[in-house]
Amino acid sequence: MHRSRKSLWLLPALLLGACGPTEVAPDAEPVAADTVEQGVLFPPPAPLSGNILDSTTYMGSVAVPGAVQTRFTANPQYFSFSIHVSAGAVAKLEVTHGGSSMYLDTGLFVYGPRDASGSFGTTLRAQDDDAGYGQLSKVASVTFPQAGEYLVVVSSGSGSGKQFRLQLDCLSGTCNPVDPSVYATCDTNQVGPYLEECMSHWGAEGVPLQEAYSRCFGADDAHHLYEGACYPSNPFKPVWCAGGEAAWTQWMWPVCQDYYAADYELYPVVLTEQPVSAELQSKLSAANAACGSSYQCFGELSAKSFAWPLSTPARLHQVAAAVYDVSQSPALSGYRLDNMSYAEFVQNRLLPGMATLHPALLNAYGNGTEDVRVTGWSYKREMWPDACMIWELYVLYFPRSHRVLVFEQDHGEEC
Q: Which key words tag this protein in UniProt (predicted)?
């Protein structure tokens, strides 16, 4: 069981640009959402692509609430900013007097949500010309019926050299939802202490491991953990608290359940033999032929896979233990090697005579992004006066595809 783990802490949403002077209240009455005050000034032209983003200068994402300040450099010009909101969120968008140049005339437009192809489309969700201070723009209230990413565009026809400040405020709902990637990994800093205490308690009572796990990972435990981490007065609330208890329960809690099920090894790794690819067999045969006699070098390969019900990958030591149980290699009589990356294995452990196996070894089952890990055993024995044989067995574990390559190499050298 790991006794120390790094917590997942994220910085608060970034406030882009300086905030500028204190805002001055406009004299005009605010306009309703999705309406136009006078003629809307310089909407971005609809591009042939059908994605309004292509007619703008994209400046990045802005948190809501938040603000961004920048300067026009051409006439006309269209700056765009993306925002992330939950369904039903209501926001106020305004080019403020404070932080904007005098006599600046702006337009304000909202498009979206972004679709699966990445397009914001060209349909206006809200727009305004002069509802703000002077000739500045303000959408007093815009409701986003769908969750997703929207595009806010600030334009000017004659603003070159002048700066503006766009202020975004959340009137209701969740206007800056937590990025779903926050829930992709269990926050073990929050879960670990509670779970270890719970498991230790039931272990001391003589409850079997599987039953103890079930008692510590029920719905009540999820609720207890959320309340313990996310109570209102906690100044160190983890960032995932902002998504609410439902998001925690639906997204991160199952990841935590899988993480600790693997950590407590509640699911054993059971290996199944798989055929070695023709490419690997061909490269191995060529390497063995080039090595000459088995005293110079010789290699063998076998491939295996295993079923795995959890979203969290099995641990490398579990996979290695499963290989140990089925292997007859002399290398197992020696010492266990440290865990290493695939790059370290190729650089430090793969014999020169076997180097042609790379990168076919890596490409055998990998998806191009997974972190292939390697461990194994090495055994050295004197066979003749001043001459030794060395047997090495390596376990190459592909954690996403649940595949395993077992590579054995042996060679002679001076003792």
A: Signal
113 closest CA partner among 143, 68, 138: 143
Residues 162-196 as b/e (b if ≥16 CB within 10 A, e otherwise) read: bbbbbbbebeebbbbbbeeebbeebbbebbbeebe
Instruction: Work out how many domains the chain is built from and give that number.
Output: 3
What are 354-409's pLDDT values in tens digits? Answer: 999 998 998 888 777 789 999 999 999 988 788 889 999 999 999 988 999 999 99
Pair 126, 101: CB distance under 8 Å: no
CATH number at residue 84: 2.60.120.380
Within this chain, do residues 258 and 300 fall inside the same structural domain, yes or no? no
According to DSSP, the residues that pair with 405 across neighbouring strands are: 303, 396
How far apart are the C-alpha atoms of 89 and 86, rounded to whole Å?
6
Q: How far from the centroid of its chain's Cα atoms is residue 270's Cα? A: 29
CATH number of the domain residue 301 falls in = 3.40.1000
Whole-prediction pTM value?
A: 0.53
| Residue 23 is assigned to a structural domain of this protein | no
Cβ-Cβ contacts under 8 Å for 293 (sequence gap 6 or more):
none
Q: For residue 190, tell me if it sits in a domain.
A: yes
* 71: its two tokens: 């300067």
C-alpha angle with apex 272: 267 to 273, nearest 5 degrees? 155
